Amino acid sequence: MPPLEPLAPYARLFAVPGARAFTAWNLLARLPMGMFGVSAVLMISAARGSYALAGAVTATGLAATAVVGPLTARLVDRHGQARVTVPAAALAALGSLALVVCVHAGAPAWTLFVCYAATATTPNTGGMSRARWSHLLRADPAALHTANAFEQAADEACFMCGPVLATFLCTSLFPEAGTLAAALMFLTGAVLFAAQKRTEPPISARPVRPRSPLRGNPGLASVLAVFLCTGALFGSLEVVTIGFADAEGHRPAAGAVLALQAAGSCAAGLLYGLARPAAPASARFPRCLAAMAALALLPLAATAAGGGLPALAAALLLAGMATAPTMVTGMNLVQGLTPPGSLNEGMTLAVTGLLAGIAAGSAAGGYAVEHAGAAGYAVPAAAAAAALLTATAGRRALALRQPARPAA
Asked: Which spans are transmembrane here (predicted)?
């Protein structure tokens, strides 16, 4: 059918045997990733009346995940996805349930930090899905580019729908409803994803050496440093937006406003997957970061001009359009820089960088919006600028080269 011809690269992806099944259950496990943070912020701020505390608690959990995540991924590389995913997901779900109990029972504030830190065993389901595509499409780089774009669009879709669902549950039912629903969906999806043995990447024939793929790998370290700054952008943007919407008297709309940022990124990611870029990823990465840094100024400008929530929503939609191309290009670099046999760990290290940045951004954003209001949008703008500067400083490590100019 001619109208569907432009979508043929995506159709070919899901013609791969077993691809639809592992993708569907992975999406169920991944959707809660867009719910947990917003649900925790809404739940804790409603019970304790402090966005600073809510941001600090979520930051602690993300920081713990940044430490534990690579260790969990190393176990996945060594023992396989199925054997590690289920127990790791079960432990993380128990941490979320313990957080709900402590908030509902009015337990001391320190217990909230401990419970949220217990979710650190959350397996990187997005990374495991990318690892499956890397295995299935290892002989087809063009199809792998499309798969990476789809995975990034899937991430954005989860962060588009997740905050909306979390906000609806927390504000329409009761504050703990978002976390409870997210934990149930996550555990169900993770178990059913792990059951898809047909597409699971094989364990390396040689034992995985207990050394980090970062060792002696300055290029990978440079990309992860950029992801750290990018995560700070994401974390601060989420908390500041929730606080801003609350100050405007539209707290239930916070999830929908955040969803627009993810919607812009999701659409850009799908379109990017249809493209066949001529320049290498190392050359495209700083360009994508420059666009992201420029567009990150829009929310700050919109709120400074007094446009209110509608203007902010439009600014976030536009700002999101640089996110997916940046992340797809960055993940392409990570896949190329990670040694064989450590792919799950390498991609989890990328997510670890993001999570560590989100943790710092959440804490900084919570403090900024509580003390400076709409001016808190300076935090995500500064984080985006830092990502660009970090990539520029690491050009040599990444061997970034501009495309050759045509001869005169």
From this structure: 51-72, 84-107, 177-195, 216-234, 254-275, 287-305, 311-334, 346-368, 374-393
